[in-house]
Amino acid sequence: MDEAPSKANKQESVLIVDDSEINRDLLADMLEEDYAVSQAACGEEVLAILEEKHDDYSCVLLDLNMGSVSGYDVLNHMKEKGWLSYLPVIIISAEENIDCIKRAYSLGAIDFISRPFDVEIVQRRVRTTIAVYSNQRRLSQMVVDQLYENERSNTMLLSILGHIVEFRNKESGAHIENVGILTEILLEHLVKKTDRYELSDSDIKTITRASVLHDAGKISVPHDILNKPGRLTPEEFAIMKKHTLDGAEMIDACTQFKDEAIVKTAYEICRWHHERYDGKGYPDGLKGEEIPIAAQVVAIADVYDALTSVRCYKDAVAHEEAIKMILNGECGSFNPLLMEIVSEIAVSLPELVKASEKQRAELGKRSA
């Protein structure tokens, strides 16, 4: 039976698994001065304990021969669950058959202690094993923290660049955040609906981050055209349309980062987020799947947020009206599959956006 740790104030906990109560008590006596010790009497019991508490233990001492569920079965289950990567197992057994010991090692056991037990050997091996895994976990967490910090810094820099463009465009800066959120929502529903585009979680993250730069080329558009309150003349619109090429050219000029996924994706988005599925968009008149999926998704996100936001040349329209305009083709032609997704999530979209905004805010607070 699983017992309460003998010293609850201790950080390191050891789980002893043996069908012999005498053996369990012997090992507990050797270890309880330095560790919180729990016990399990059979394979079934330890598996039940670990299902709920595998994160609570620093080391497992495991007998091999325990009836219907052997130590080998326990090791195999722990291996399948991925617990052995952070929870070390030391075999405790009188078994002297070298093949049995090798089998235990092949299943992921980290060490072997034979009976009869020697106090100093048991204490040293347990202490060493816990120390090694503790250092490994600490180093792994340091790497994760560093990667997260690097990603956070990169995301902040991209966001700042996007906000610079928005500031010049006399917009609040919410546009780039909204486009990113909408892009992520659409991509997540797209991968649930089809595997046509083979988008991984990493791809979704890259496209979402790159969407920040979709209007980077607007920095080259003359101020009086960019912020004109009325309808643009054909000549002015021709200049405005050049922001797609200018943005792509700016990104393409970053030759030292040209092979990075986010740079390639940002280029596609900048150049082609105004292309339309029927080939009537700009700047290159791409049609259908000639348009990269990243640009297709950002195009819809961009149109929706533009419709539902106040601009110097128009008032905002309601969510329902914006969805209706997009689905009716009033804003250009889009991928029918993406239109299905827009239709399916139309009712819940405002709540999905709010939930994403809340999640991003909470992540920001935790990382601050």
Blueprint of the fold:
Blueprint: E1 13-17, H1 21-31, E2 36-40, H2 43-53, E3 59-62, H3 71-81, E4 89-93, H4 98-106, E5 111-114, H5 119-168, H6 174-193, H7 201-210, H8 223-226, H9 234-241, H10 243-252, H11 261-272, H12 293-307, H13 319-327, H14 336-345, H15 349-367
Parallel strand pairs: 1-2, 1-3, 3-4, 4-5
Helix pairs in contact: 2-3, 6-7, 6-12, 6-14, 6-15, 7-11, 10-11, 11-12, 12-13
Low-pLDDT segments: 1-9
Separation, N- and C-terminal Cα atoms:
44 Å
Approximate shape: elongated
Task: Name the structural class.
Answer: alpha/beta
What is the fold-level CATH name, i.e. the topology of the largest domain?
A: Hypothetical protein af1432
CATH class of the largest domain: Mainly Alpha
What's the number of domains? Answer: 2
Assign the CATH superfamily of the largest domain.
Answer: Hypothetical protein af1432
Rg from C-alpha positions? 30 Å
CATH architecture of the largest domain: Orthogonal Bundle
**What is the N-to-C succession of helices and strands?**
EHEHEHEHEHHHHHHHHHHH
